[in-house]
Amino acid sequence: MSARFVLDREPSLSRSTVVRDELLRVDPERLTAGWAHAQVLRVDPAGRVAAKDGRLVLESASTTGAAPAKDAVLLGEDGDTPVWAVPTPELEVLEGEQAVDLRSGGALLDDTGAGLLTTAAALLAWHAMARFCTVCGGRTKPVSSGWARRCAQCGREEYPRTDPAVICLVHDGADQVLLGRQPTWPVGRFSVLAGFVEAGESLEDCVEREVGEEVGAAVTDIHYLGSQPWPFPRSIMLGFEATADAAAPVVPRDGEIAEARWFTKDDVREALARGEWTGNPDDPGEEVPLLLPGSISIARVMLESWVG
Fold first, then answer.
1. Which residues form the Nudix hydrolase domain (predicted)?
2. Residue 288's pLDDT is what?
3. Per-residue pLDDT for 285 more than 60?
């Protein structure tokens, strides 16, 4: 049995303070009463919102109309205040504000803002891809305050889809970790291994299969660490740790992993201390240091916790 570790902080996109109230979504009287003091978050087609000093810029719902628009989605309640997301063709950013998306600004937002933007990104991306019924092909329309869509032709209701994916920090039980680089990543950028859960597969079996397929390593002592929503566009990352033999051959899967190798805790500490995405990995003449995932990802929390 190897030495186990736990996540030493909550992943950035797992933070939230807003209450999700399923009953509110289908209560016309409460929705109407709440709209008078509700707030809205405007989101442009690129998924960008206005933010200032680490907080989302919200506005009074009354500025958007006397009632929620058909494409508005209820994100939840912040205290007694309902908060909605509203798609907007063009984002207005005032002086002192900045336009951010979830990747660039999610980790910099406060807990309330992180939860609101993560939910908004997931819901709005789903609506954009679920305009037609998967059974009869008829057009669907939003219902339940944006938490479902109903087919106008056959009446079938569909709900936001979330695809589970495992992400696993593989270590040797001591001071080495196995990291991989995808072919689309620049030289020097590595991360822990990940893959989607297949139909009829348990999470633990997925960890074992994905690690074996991607780098040829046989893992044992699989343990759950934590999770993080990853709405790019509709995933949730389920974090695990597992052990493998560092002396066994590493065989990167052709087309999926460009290279994979073992790094020591000192290697990882140095990379973390350099900050996020340092160096110039696009310059082939420059010696590239180890580059690790940014703070938006659960992968970085896993690596920080492991070396800690």
1. 160-285
2. 72
3. no
